[in-house]
Amino acid sequence: MRAHLCAVVSALVAGSACGKQPPPQAAQAEPLVQLLELPISLRHGGQVGADAAKIEIGGTELRLDGRAVMSLNEGSVPAAERSADELPRLRDALKAGPARRLAAIRMHGATPWSTTVLVLASVKAAGLSEVAFEVRKGRSTQTGWLHLSRFRVEPASDAFPRFEGAAARLWDEMLTAWPEAHAACRRSHFVDCSPAPTATRRGGGLALTLFARGQAIKTEFWRIAPADEPAEPPAPRMIEGVRAPPPEQLEPEPVTQGAFTWRFEAAIEEGLSPVSGAWRPLCGARPCGALVTADAGTMSSRILSLVGAAFPEGAAEPELVFRIPTP
Hints:
Helix content is 21%, strand content 24%. It has 6 helices and 14 strands. The protein has helices at 2-12, 88-96, 113-125, 171-185, 274-283, 300-310, and strands spanning 40-41, 53-57, 61-64, 67-71, 102-107, 130-137, 143-148, 151-154, 190-193, 205-213, 216-224, 257-263, 289-294, 319-323. The strands form 2 sheets. Strands 1, 2, 3, 4, 5, 6 and 7 form a 7-stranded mixed β-sheet that branches. Helix 6 (300-310) links the parallel strand 13 and strand 14. Helix 2 runs parallel beside helix 3. The termini are far apart. 38% of the residues are buried.
């Protein structure tokens, strides 16, 4: 009878031995980040495969593929865990695993920006070329991925980075887009929107930066003068005894820079965000190269939401340079 029961059990439960309990399964680690703690992004249509390197960033720990790599202090990297502009433990753990192309990051939105950029630098140093941040789709509880395949990380510098190819945009293109961009900037939540200039210079490249601090988000842009541009002629000297012309008769100074500043809510506004509307004329159909900066302690959600709003779903993927903030 016992032999008969064993045969029946063996047929129903393949691989198990009669009279023995199956081995207990390993307990799943609690997620470090809950759904409502994820950043919000208006760009969220990226795809992440099962072979991606899965990085989690919480308040007390950083994990890779479910295993703890290093401890964090309220999301910040302890000084002992940092070497130059990388996180050696994370970099080496990524290198020790299988060859992978993409890192999928699930992180708390309040993570200090310095931690996020150091993670990106370590991902690059390990040979992975792409990254995707898990984000909420607007204010909903649905999630997606802010996928970036064209990015690099650079040390702190005052110089604007160099872009090549389609991402290297021209100042004259900004001048054409400026009136529409200014009108969109003022739709809602704006603090200041530079109007299109009446006098400017032509030619040259365009510098575009994305910046966040506290509750404010800002995009700045300026003209990069051509290398062969002649020096500005000196202003004419006034002749003693000759009255200067009134201000209304003077030629206006050429404007070669501008900025659009909003409260953070502009980056997550449903429908057409004013940030999206401002940069759609220039960056909607063609990629833009942009420098992304923030103070070390800025919440990462501020920057990621700004990136998602400036280049929302349907816009061309940007090429981004992340600067490592000074401690």
